[in-house]
Specification:
There is one protein chain. By secondary structure, the chain is an all-alpha fold. It has a single domain, classed as CDP-alcohol phosphotransferase transmembrane (TM) domain (Four Helix Bundle (Hemerythrin (Met), subunit A)). It is 70% helix and 0% strand. The chain is built from 9 helices and no strands. Helix 2 crosses helix 4. It is globular and about 50 Å long.
């Protein structure tokens, strides 16, 4: 995720892949509240992609475009290709790659001295499109290529609503905290982030959802797993909404 940061023209450029990875490790966002996969798998993967992109001379916006392309490919496969084991593996690979690159663009921006408002806007637009289109593609694929009872098609519809609302609420929370001078969740803290919350929020992790598409070739297995993740995401949103509302109520006017 691209973020705007102060430029430091006096900072020397990293020398070599190892130095680049070291610089990136020292400039990570706060880990508080980050789900398990995103925290321990996707961020290190994004760090590697950011280092490689820096070596290749790519811009953060170019990495965002690569992320969007990978994710769009996976979404298109879901909607256009009949479920099979190779197809499920390809979808999962595209989504995991897209998610890793999504973590890389912001890290690359910080490494280069800071992102831009346009880059942050582009990154959020891609994320917003991803949050809804993935579940709509699942709906289309299940409708076109399976003989599931129609009631199961309500799951991706509900998942689409839940993910869209969760994403909007997350962005709105950050914007209101920043506007009213409260610490944002992206801010680094000196306190170590516990692992308990990361484990508890794992069922709501987009990275875990992306990995479950390896099961898409076995629809009878994928649909129950997908449904459990949907229920977990809906339950999280229901509980978090009350907490977020109380937090917003405590912000200074």
């Amino acid at each position: 995720m691209t973020t705007v940061a102060e430029r430091r023209p006096d900072t020397p450029a990293p020398q070599g892949l190892r130095d680049t990875l070291s610089r990136l490790s020292a400039a990570q966002k706060g880990a508080a509240g980050a789900p398990l996969y995103s925290r321990f798998v996707n961020r290190p993967l994004g760090r590697l992609f950011a280092a490689l992109a820096f070596s290749a001379g790519l811009t953060p916006n170019a990495v965002t475009a690569l992320s969007a392309t990978a994710t769009a490919t996976g979404v298109a496969l879901l909607a256009l290709v009949s479920p099979s084991v190779p197809m499920g593996l390809a979808v999962a690979a595209c989504l995991v790659l897209g998610y890793g690159l999504d973590a890389a663009d912001g890290q690359l921006a910080r490494l280069r001295g800071g992102g831009s408002p346009a880059g942050e806007w582009l990154d959020h637009m891609v994320d917003a499109a991803k949050a809804s289109s993935l579940h709509l593609a699942v709906l289309i694929g299940l409708y076109r290529f399976t003989d599931l009872d129609a009631v199961w098609l309500l799951v991706p519809l509900g998942y689409c609503v839940v993910d869209a609302v969760t994403y909007f609420a997350t962005m709105l929370n950050e914007a209101l905290r920043a506007q009213h001078g409260a610490p944002t969740r992206a801010a680094r803290t000196s306190q170590p982030a516990g692992i308990g919350r990361s484990i508890m929020t794992l069922p709501t992790d987009y990275g875990l959802l992306a990995c479950t598409f390896v099961l898409f070739g076995w629809t009878s297995v994928f649909v129950p797993v997908y449904t459990v993740l949907f229920l977990a995401a809906a339950g999280f949103l229901l509980l978090a909404a009350g907490k977020w509302f109380r937090e917003m109520g405590r912000l200074p006017r």
